[in-house]
Design goal:
The protein is of the alpha/beta class. It is built from five helices and four strands. The chain has one domain: Rossmann fold, CATH 3.40.50.10580.
């Protein structure tokens, strides 16, 4: 049980492309694969049904989130935290 769970704030999630979430899930965050903008509505709905304290997302990936969901995420819980992109440090990244 993590500190956040003990305080009943919910869990930390990481959302995005496979490589990004695999790296962050090593630290114990709950992972949700969401490869592109077409997958985002289902991922967003899943997050709304969970007890979530915060969501880590990759900055480049976050730019592809549909505008409607960007506004919705800013006005409701949980807190969305953009982390630096892995794109520039991985050879052969699409």
């Amino acid at each position: 049980m993590t500190f956040l769970e003990k305080q009943n704030y919910g869990k930390g999630y990481v959302l995005g492309r496979q490589l990004f979430i695999e790296l962050w899930s090593l630290l114990g965050f709950e992972a949700i694969v969401c490869e592109g903008p077409e997958d985002f509505p289902d991922c967003f709905q899943k997050l709304q049904s969970e007890e979530v304290a915060f969501v880590l997302v990759e900055s480049d990936w976050a730019e592809s989130i549909p505008e409607f969901y960007k506004r919705k995420a800013k006005t409701s819980d949980p807190v969305w935290v953009q982390m630096p992109s892995l794109k520039s440090s991985v050879k052969g990244w699409e």
